[in-house]
Input
Amino acid sequence: MPAASDLNVTTLAGGVGAARFLRGLARVIDPARLCVIVNTGDDEEFFGLHVSPDLDTITYTLAGAIDQSKGWGLPEETFRCLEALDRYYPETWFGLGDRDLATHLFRTHLLRQGQSLSKVTAAIARAWGVTATVLPMSDDPVRTVVHTEMGALPFQQYFVKGRGEGQVSKVELCGIATASAASGVCEAIRSADLVILPPSNPIVSIGPILALPGVRQALRQTAAPVVAVSPLVAGKPVKGPADRLLSGLGIEVSVTGVAGLYQDFLDALVIDTQDENQCTRLEQLGLTVIATDTIMNDMEKSVALAQVIMQHKHLKR
Amino acid sequence: MPAASDLNVTTLAGGVGAARFLRGLARVIDPARLCVIVNTGDDEEFFGLHVSPDLDTITYTLAGAIDQSKGWGLPEETFRCLEALDRYYPETWFGLGDRDLATHLFRTHLLRQGQSLSKVTAAIARAWGVTATVLPMSDDPVRTVVHTEMGALPFQQYFVKGRGEGQVSKVELCGIATASAASGVCEAIRSADLVILPPSNPIVSIGPILALPGVRQALRQTAAPVVAVSPLVAGKPVKGPADRLLSGLGIEVSVTGVAGLYQDFLDALVIDTQDENQCTRLEQLGLTVIATDTIMNDMEKSVALAQVIMQHKHLKR
Output
């Protein structure tokens, strides 16, 4: 086996939970050998700007620039422009900080000039000195829409404005029928030495990536072990509405319920020790189970979790 | 004669100098009867945003929101976004404040949706509670390019980055051949009871407006008196490079030189008492000359100057 620092690791990521994991992983492996495929179903246009919340959370985190307390955005932000936008727009509920705005301006500018989201994302990562490869899942627009009793809500309306409340009846991925995975996405899965799904919402963070043509197949066919970290701890999400999304779609709200969504390609599942009661059921699905402390409330715990996974890097079933 | 408050007044305006005058005029007449036709030759795209410096200076001023000390932009500005843009762009010399950015975002957003600059300008004025009509000179792009020994410089590069330095050899209005005056521009000149050219740079502020098809003709044909305020005081510009622009183009740097540029349509010229030595020459051009204090370093002086002009509103030659 090569040393951990020689491995090419590909990860599928949503926002905050994934970022918490990746900050640790990037200290355990050579970040230049890390590829992060990021959900863009949460992307939204605000005030004419193309905002990619998950991409920015991942990039800022890998740059060591993220606001640690919130888990997203830049530290010591001000919201002077957003406050001023209130004069022009009826709604200004999405928290665009003044420093963060520069990223959205740059992204929007290059996209309007005809550059792909992949190219723009690479340029942003370069500007922040990020050596990992950050790939949007697709260069085509895919927009997650959550149906609740309040109607069909674009993801940010559901998640930020509506605080993830309401009874979920359906999750729609608008544009998925005509979207392709971005160039490099399937290749990064196939050529990896290890594929990791950090703790991200399985429905609205990982789900859109898996829905792209070729991605599930690449995960099934890759020679690399595929390891997921459960986003549920003690049967509940650490943060966010994963429980409401899962139950709304008729999926058991448990690590076993999550594992079922990945069953066709998953080799091992990392669960929190609080969920060890699920071990037998998970093993019956043919999975290797790794039980450890998965709550990453500081960098040390993120590093420790990454180390546990890298110790199990040979777990191909 | 109708009372001053019943008069429809149309003005042709550049940026700071014109704004200083208009803040006073809007107190002397009913602002709802004021129409300001604004130069857009200074417009520029920065970071993918459509910036209209003169339009914003006029609108912010009429809203009572301008930064009084600078004469442009909003007071108590911060530049956090601009500082952050430094990571993405090689040049960030144009001072876009965080609050001011909201205006550029809104303008750019609506323009990209296909709205005309006139409509967007009206929406911005409405958002600021401005009852005067603020009209861009054209909905078509006209870009002022100043040729100096440093080459052909787009106006903001010449004026802001280059501080108006260099020997001017030519001023080019790119796009003028295919541009039309915005809807309402010529009508506002023809239907006015009084037309005023506040103290604005005759070459790069008033020049582009006059170069639009139909504008000079409307000024010649209107039944309204046309009164200009000299931007030169004691033979020198109060601010900016008007002297270098005039001399570079072979025009005498004096109130008489300026008057010559407007000779075909002007009825009266307001000059500073410091330029009274030019009275005879100006009268030889057939102009009525009004000599008064034209330096508007506070609101009272702006109001006083507006009052002087409104007292001479019958000066059709």
